[in-house]
Amino acid sequence: MGTLFTSLLNSTSALQVFGRSLDVIQNNISNANTPGYAKQSQSLIAAPFDPHAGFTGGVIAGPVISARSEFLEQAVRAQQEALGFAGQKAGDLGLIEPLFDLTSDSGLSGAINKLFDSFSQLS
User: Measuring CA to CA, which of 1, 66, 85, 93 is 20 to 30 A from 114?
Assistant: First the structure.
């Protein structure tokens, strides 16, 4: 049979564990508007109970678990990579786009026309 002191120790331990849980909840609330923050939760583990061996039971704090999905994180990274590739390609193609202007004399067609005009003047 447990003593009053054992009951007080179990109560103290439980209050400490629940205090850690409240810390995690407070962290979730204060970071709710932070971009990229994933909700966390405190896992609670039942302590072993065996009065003959001196294990009085109760609750202990387990690891803090993040709500991130590894699959979704990989999908986001893949899309960011594709966005970076497309942005770089658009920038590179934007540099050579004026060369293919077909509506004025400043593009590639204008340069070819000037070349043939020069050939005509030589002959």
Answer: 93
